[in-house]
Amino acid sequence: MREDIRTVFENDPAARSIPEVLFTYSGLHALWAHRVAHWFYRKRRFGIARLVSQISRFFTGIEIHPGARIGRRFFIDHGMGVVIGETCEIGDDVVLYQGVTLGGTGKEKGKRHPTIGNNVVVGSGAKVLGSFTVGDYARIGSNAVVLKEVPPHSTVVGNPGRIVKVNGKRVDKLDHGNLPDPVIDICSQLQRQIDMLKAELQGLAAEKDKLLKEKVKDGGSV
Length: 222
Hints:
It contains 5 helices and 16 strands. The protein has helices at residues 2-11, 18-24, 26-42, 46-60, 182-217, and strands spanning 63-64, 69-70, 75-76, 83-84, 89-90, 95-96, 101-103, 115-116, 121-122, 127-129, 133-134, 139-140, 145-146, 154-157, 162-166, 169-170. A 7-stranded mixed beta sheet has the order 3-6-9-12-14-15-16. The protein has a 5-stranded parallel beta sheet with strand order 1-4-7-10-13. Strands 2-5-8-11 form a 4-stranded parallel beta sheet, with no helix packed on it. Helix 3 (26-42) runs antiparallel to helix 4.
């Protein structure tokens, strides 16, 4: 519990005192309640486990399934709307912001939620959906929708999520072939069509000016 409190101070500059953290940080309350629920879950007391998690959800606005496995120094900033699924596994030193969903994509059985590595940061409103791994030290931008595996030390943004940095270096556009973004593709096609239309209009305008000049030169009326 001392480590959890220290984690709050390390991640939130707004934290001023231990009593403030103890009584007002819903992310901390949700984490402690989850540990109780997870203990009952491991003892196969599923009903009590779910009851504890639902009471915690009512008071904190954070829903963590009792089956989720969470590492040390886990921090949820603000936390309202955070959802963590049953088979989700979270490593050490992970930070989640409000509105994050670590969920599944359907009704499949078995492992259906993501595995989050160590030192991962997931921005506000991001959705990480499916049974895959988010590598260590990855960064997921706000409102990103991640449906595929994320390599370590990479940054993911957008919907659907695409890798924009690996090891601090910006990824070349050609490296995005395995992460298609239909919105960007459509915008690129529209831009090409607009450029073609501009070129045609400029050509027609130049031809019109040429004809007008020739007509004036020949003494005709405009």
